Amino acid sequence: MTPVIALSLFGIINLFLGFTFKRQSLQVVTLLFIICSMALTAMDWNHEYLWFGDMMKTNNLSINFSLIIQLAGLLVVAFSNGFGKDEVYTQPAEYYAILLFSLVGALLMVSFQNLIMLFVGLEILSVAMYVLTGSDKRNLRSNEAALKYFLMGSFATGFLLFGIALVYGSTRSLYISGILYNLSHTAPESLPSFLYAGIILMGIGLLFKISAAPFHFWTPDVYEGAPTIFTMFMSTVVKTAGFAAIYHILDVTFGGFQKNWIITVYFITIITLILGNISAAYQQSAKRMLAFSSISHAGYMLLTVCANQPSTSSNILYYSLAYTLATAVSFAVLMVVAEYQTGRTEKPENFDALNGLAKNNPSLAFAFTVALLSLAGIPLTAGFWGKFFVFTDMFNKNLTYPIIIAVLMSAVGIYYYFKGIISVYFNSGEIEKIETSFLFKIALWSACIGTLVLGIYPTLLKSIF
Amino acid sequence: METKTDRFMQSIPEIIRTIPLTHYILLSSALFAIGVLGVLTRRNALIVFMAIELMLNAVNLLLAAFSSYFSDPAGQIFVFFIMAVAAAEVAVGLAIIVMIYRNIQTIDIGLLNKLRN
Amino acid sequence: MIESFGYVLAFLVAGTGFMALVLTLARFIRPNRPNDEKLSTYESGEAPVGNANVRFNPRFYLYALLFVLFEIELILLFPWAVVFGDKQLAAASENWKHFALFEMLIFIGILGLGLAYAWVKGYLEWEKPNIQAEDFKSPVPPKAYEKFN
Questions:
Q1: Do B93 and A165 touch (CB under 8 A)?
Q2: Touching check for A20 and chain C: CB below 8 Å?
Q3: Is the peptide bond before A214 cis (omega within 30 degrees of 0)?
Q4: By the 8 A CB rule, do A88 and B50 touch?
Q5: Which ranges carry the NADH:quinone oxidoreductase/Mrp antiporter transmembrane domain (chain A) (predicted)?
Q6: Rounded CA gap, A56 and A245, in Å?
Q7: pLDDT tens across C36-91, in order?
Q8: Which residues of B touch A200 (CB under 8 A)?
């Protein structure tokens, strides 16, 4: 409860601090704010309670999700570097404030007990992201990405709302507990048939947000057009919060109706895996490749939602954490390299722009490699264990064919992630030493070390989750 | 104490209930489908935007109908929330459309294809 | 069920028929002497200038935005007012009124902060167009114009 209030207040404070503070100090202040709210989140550990008129619920699962989301926010703020040096067009105080506000939305999405709060949280998160996507006002690509994201996002919200309305109509409650109670006290035959349409529509609305195929078509364009720092935020925070909500809706609330949605979600999962991985292999632009890779990772995480085992929530947590750390690092390295290459090469976000990074920037190259290895799921990195736990879940449920597809697709994944590693280490190119700030270095190294530690001792966090 | 207006207000749910629930569901599904079609077929960003609003209002209608059928205010409160959030979306969406218009002097979404290649 | 729509049809037919009848009747008995003044859009004497399809200055956008914000805030005040005015709830607890009022003040306070932010940022200032002095140097001295004006 406290972190939500605290983050909203911090956001407002941040808006007003922008009048007096410089961008470097704003960054530090924002970092302190997020650390403070992480501490407030952690203080609720092992205290399960309802708040805001029973509309929200804090338990260890929601605390874990909140911590991962805030960690992602922390990394993004640390990598942000005051959003470049353009004094006229960037407004760091507003960007930081909007980041904090969207974190509030994400926190609501992981701890909702009432469908109203799911909707409100989702919208707080999305509306903030529409603004940030279009924040590069003079750049036509950013404009286009913002419009696409906005139109597709509100379209998806429409589906989610129609689903909520139908579920409300058939269960007579907006509270998760009320829905569960009414579902368990009504004979399945007497439930109206539009309940099932409602469940599917809600699922579609949420799957749009986490960019599962065939609702993924906006993702590559939006990820590519948005400023890289906000792409990083989008692919980590929005995805984690979206999965928390999907898990809560499909598995916790409508787990009893699994036979009604499972076929659809299976179909979506398999299409997501195939489309995401195959398209990623064709990309010339590293940023676009990472966008497709985020689609394919949504596929892996959906597999564990399909399995719906007791360990599903902890698997989603582990996968989200591994994915968050690796994606943040890879986008961060891509961002500084693209910044350096702007004006020097035609397409600063292509793989070619990374050529020869290792020669003068060994630390950036190493971090990038660790991140890509983790995304590819190579052992000794966190990504491997994330995939391993997901596959174990599937195996326990005797879902052999999806596992075969998933394993094949991770083999395809290895191909395109290694494309990045090859251009960093083996291709020749001229990149001078890139100067990065102190906070950037700390964030980069801690995320890297986190990936490796989680890869070597997966039980370290698995026991908490 | 109870005035005529009060009695009228209290009879509104009954008036709403004289039309079967199925009709409300069909009507708002039809409105929703029109909205979806509008989003998928129109090329002008503003019209797409209006189609999305139509989808949201179909949901509002459905929620209000359910709410008075069940005599449960939660659905109507949800409608308030949807309205408020839709207004916030409108503000941001119009800002994005104005920004695009300033740059390319059109709001035809078919012309936005810089990112495709 | 469907036959009750017969009334609607009857109304439609009756309404259209009545309008047609009245308008035709009026056409026969009224004098018909149009002139320019009568045919103008505003008979009050306001002369319409230009096309109705003018573009509004985007400067209005911010004001419209702030208006929408406070208008929507009003919607959320309605359910609050219902609960706030409930006599049973007020009787049940002594502090109820203060608590509810305080909550609403927080809600409005946050919106007020937003307005204050826009104010301090200078978004409420009406941007006057910057009229540039013409660099055209007329050979006719300005004094010469004063004779005629």
A1: no
A2: no
A3: yes
A4: no
A5: 114-410
A6: 13
A7: 777 777 777 777 777 777 777 777 877 888 888 788 888 888 888 888 888 887 78
A8: none
In tens, the pLDDT along A316-364 reads 999 999 999 999 999 999 999 988 888 888 788 888 888 888 888 899 9
Instruction: Inform me whether the C-beta atom of residue A15 falls under 8 Å from chain C C-beta atoms.
Output: yes
Q: Which domain holds residue C34?
A: 2-39
Against a cut of 0.90, is the pTM above it? no
C69 contact A CB<8A: no
Q: Does C63 share its domain with C30?
A: no
Question: What was the ipTM of the complex prediction?
Answer: 0.93
Residue A91 has pLDDT above 90, yes or no: no
Tell me: pLDDT of B28 over 90.
Answer: yes
For the domain made up of B11-111, the CATH class stated in words is mainly alpha
Do residues C111 and C80 both lie within one domain?
yes
pLDDT tens sequence across A273-306: 999 999 999 898 999 999 999 999 999 999 999 8
- Å between C117 CA and nearest CA of chain A: 7
**Per-domain residue ranges of chain A:** 2-462
Mean pLDDT confidence for A96-109: 94
Tell me: do C99 and C66 sit in the same domain.
Answer: yes
The reply to whether C129 falls in a domain is no
Confidence of residue A34 (pLDDT cuts 50, 70, 90): very high
Does residue C77 form part of some domain? yes
The pLDDT > 70 percentage for chain A reads: 99
- Tell me the shortest Cα–Cα distance from B30 to chain A, in angstroms: 12
Query: Is C132 domain-assigned?
Result: no
Q: Do A15 and C117 touch (CB under 8 A)?
A: yes
Same domain? C63 vs C116: yes
Q: For residue A260, what pLDDT is reported?
A: 85
- Tell me: pLDDT of C149 over 70: no
Share of chain B above pLDDT 70, in %: 93
Residues C68 and C25 in one domain: no
- Interface size, chain A vs chain C, as Cβ–Cβ contacts under 8 Å: 6
Per-residue model confidence (pLDDT) at position B1: 54
Domain assignment present for C133: no
- How near does any CA of chain B get to the CA of C76, in Å? 7
Q: How many domains does chain C have?
A: 2
